[in-house]
Amino acid sequence: QGAIDAAKLPIPMKMMVDIDHGDVTSPNPADTDPYAWAKAFPLQSPIIHIKQSSMNKGGHWPFTAAYNKDGRIVPQKLLDAVRQGGGT
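-> structure tokens emitted (88 positions)
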């Protein structure tokens, strides 16, 4: 967000966090943890892109019973993480 703000764009812009697109080359487990991202960015990013995915990083699926059964994202846990990070 700092680089966007520093650009002094004529229209204010905010970044959008895309949950579950972490840096898979990072040794830091938080870099691929969607809940860590949800806690870290709600004050900088008023918009969060979420979708259901699997542990192998596959999928851009809806939050339906069929996909939630094997999905990585637990909706209530994600909302709790956003709130813990100061989001509403």
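The two ends are 19 Å apart (CA to CA).
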